[in-house]
Amino acid sequence: xxxxxxxxxxxxxxxxxxxxxxxxxxxxxxxxxxxxxxxxxxxxxxxxxxxxxxxxxxxxxxxxxxxxxxxxxxxxxxxxxxxxxxxxxxxxxxxxxxxxxxxxxxxxxxxxxxxxxxxxxxxxxxxxxxxxxxxxxxxxxxxxxxxxxxxxxxxxxxxxxxxxxxxxxxxxxxxxxxxxxxxxxxxxxxxxxxxxxxxxxxxxxxxxxxxxxxxxxxxxxxxxxxxxxxxxxxxxxxxxxxxx
Length: 244
Fold this sequence. Notes:
Elements: H1 2-15, H2 23-93, H3 97-107, H4 113-129, H5 134-143, H6 150-167, H7 170-187, H8 194-208, H9 211-223, H10 229-243
């Protein structure tokens, strides 16, 4: 088909007196015709899609610029939060928990979710160390937050149980223990915080007076692999005291 088209063009060129019909001039003439056709095709494409292409290019360039600005701002925000955490630790080491609590409350209001939750966890832990029952509400707000990552919610619940055993009255503990035991057995089996949950479960059994269940749970921990040394030592001490 293309050969016939080229022959037709050559014949027309010869008839119109375009010059000599040797092979070189014919090739040059054909190239000129094809170039004009390509230009016309590109022009039609540009007339049809030119505005869209320009708009899309602007959007891509703007998006790349905004993403770069976001990355720089995100890094600056994280560095600022990290610096505040350093100040918190220094105040805690210097015996200024009041200042540290205010700083942690400020960090807990930042938009970076992971930093906010870590600040809330540490805030609640300081309150617990001070014997303040407000720690329970702080831990509860974290594990009740459906938007928080499961890991944070899990550790917050375990901390909540341990804090409750320390801060609740005996009557409150007796009422809460069945729910604590049920949750720890059902929700944290073979999860990331499994070992810590088992230790908390053993404490609940001890508070409940169920020594056999406590011994069984502590034995499971002692036989587990990759148990932190401090936790393993606690298990051995508790087992020894229960058996005695």
